[in-house]
Design goal:
The structure holds 2 protein chains of 2 kinds. Chain A contains 5 helices and 2 strands; from the N terminus they run H-H-E-E-H-H-H. By secondary structure, chain A is an all-alpha fold. In chain A, a hairpin with a 2-residue loop joins strand 1 and strand 2 (45-46). In chain A, helix 2 runs antiparallel to helix 3 (50-68) and helix 4 packs across helix 5 (128-149). By secondary structure, chain B is an all-alpha fold. In chain B, helix 7 packs across helix 8 (166-180), helix 7 runs parallel beside helix 21 and helix 10 (244-264) crosses helix 11. Chain B is globular, with a radius of gyration of 22 Å. The chains are: A mainly alpha, B mainly alpha. Chains A and B meet through helix 2, strand 2, helix 3, helix 4 and helix 5 of A and helix 8, helix 9, helix 18, helix 19 and helix 20 of B.
Chain lengths: 161, 511
Amino acid sequence: MNAERGSAALGSRWPWPLLAPLAVLLLGVGYTVAALRLPLQTALGVGPGFLPFLIGLFIVACAAWALATRATAIPPDQPFPLGEEAGRVPLLLALLVAYLVLLIPLGHLLSGMLMASASIWVLGRRPWWAALGIGVALSAGSWALFDLVLGLPLPAGPLGG
Amino acid sequence: MDQLGNLALGFSILLAPENLLAALIGVVLGSLVGVLPGLGPVGAMAVLLPVTFSLTPTSAIILLAGIYYGSMYGGSTTSILLNVPGEATSVVTAIDGHQMTKQGRAGAALAVAAVGSLLAGTLSTMGLMLFAPALGSVALNFGPPEYLAIAVFSLLVLSRLSGDPLPLALMLAGIGLALATVGQNVTTGVARFTFGQIQLAKGIELAAVAVGLFGIAEVFSVAEERAGLPSVIPVKLRELLPTREEWKRSWAPMLRGSVLGFPFGLIPGPCAVISTFASYELEKRVAPADRRAQFGKGAIEGVAGPEAANNAAAGGAMIPLLALGIPFAAPTAMLLGGFTIHNITPGPLMISQHPEVFWALIASMYLGNVMLLVLNLPLVGLFTSILRLPKDVLLVLILVISVVGVYSVNNSLFDLGVMVAAGVVGYLLRKFRLNPTLLILPLVIGAILEQSLLQTILLSRGQPSYLLERPIALVLLALALVVVVLPAVLSAVRGTRAPSALSAAGRAGQF
């Protein structure tokens, strides 16, 4: 509901789908400026900055074209499409980041178990012991498949290996 | 006759136990991935890229290719049984396939889809066998201008056919090209856009981006929906046989779909998806008046034609990769990744330098399509049983496999960070209804484009008139311009906005 009101208010002045080309326009300008810091030409010919500079101009031009023509792939009067459980997405994202941070210090078995268990709990609203059990199974199963069967070692952490 | 001798060589290599096992595992995984709405062949191939390190190049390519064409089979299963397309290539199949399920004819629909896929897969493999070496021979005369034109052609046509508004599609393609410039420039050795990060010296890892865009993003999108997956209607083995009348109505659409779908594979972009829409429209047009009314209500022609078309397109899509070394679709971009990992450069020289890989791949596609028919029909219950897994377990399983798979590519936390960032980007692209393939293909083609551009500039000494001496390059560039500009001209003349054939596919991004 808040998203609808916010989108409706935004839509009268600035359709929210145009945020994408606007963001890309700003990124494109930054990329082009960064490309200009590279040599466009060298004694042997075209420099490493030549193609990035062209690409940067291309991105900026296309983003500006999209903004000027108000090109959107979704009707601008449609509110930003959020699912009923949209709050799960930032939680899952945070859990993935936590896995990334803990992978080396704790190893895959422990960090994977924590990530998987917490994700199951977020998604399934199961009792904590069920989420933990499934998390242990997924973590151990993936470790066994990749590390033992396929010979692709994963960080061991304090459990050694 | 040479081809037959080479094919015999391919089969002799394929019969090695590790290659047979790779083919079987590839098609089974492909079917599973096709059944599961979400991960898709691109994400699955990306996650399994590191797994192929321990395989021989031949086994690795056979396995990855099996996932690609196997997913075409699997996608139709959930389309027919659940009205939930496993892949974007099966969206059209759901229209009449699920209606047949409601009429108690699920088995017939599955059987016709599977047999049509076998027929189309076999015919398209024959086409691949004939045309790839021929095109490869022609491509031996290609120089940097021709490769530059092909790269530009593929990006412009991809942008036009993606289904997104053209400015947005070109914008995304530009971002993909920008990502391709990250890392140490091969020509000059200068580090570009690495911000001092040594991990970026090799560039951005393709597998990380692919898994993020197609796997993690899909997990996010499915997680935020409260609804679970629909329950599966069981299909008994004895119900799998279509009636004589159904067979009679199916064989011509299967053939037409096979012939129609194959050249679509030669077009950059979501070729397989477009081929299914084209086939469906064709079947409607050629159907007798009394049967035309049945389309949308359980016409078996609406299953047979599109399912044949998407499998034929998958075979056709291998031609640009194998003959030219340039992927025109996201799954073949992943195959290129597989080749690269094993130090094989697909292209005109691959067939002569690595005939064992090429011909074993061809042989595996013949055998793999038969395996798929044998597995998918009697074992349809087994494949769909994966859908009985609770949604939360399924999603977290995909997450775990994704993180482990991506980490295993380079043992790099940085790649995991790229994957997570790509997951967020892919999730937002879905919100904005934009096609993630527009990021992946340019990321792969970017290096080819830059190298050929620099070489063309060197050869031409900066003179644009040099292109006049390269008719193939000129024709390709002109074609690209026509494809990009023509629809806009036509809609301006008609005074209407040209509809996108892909907008109904929901842009799941599984092309």
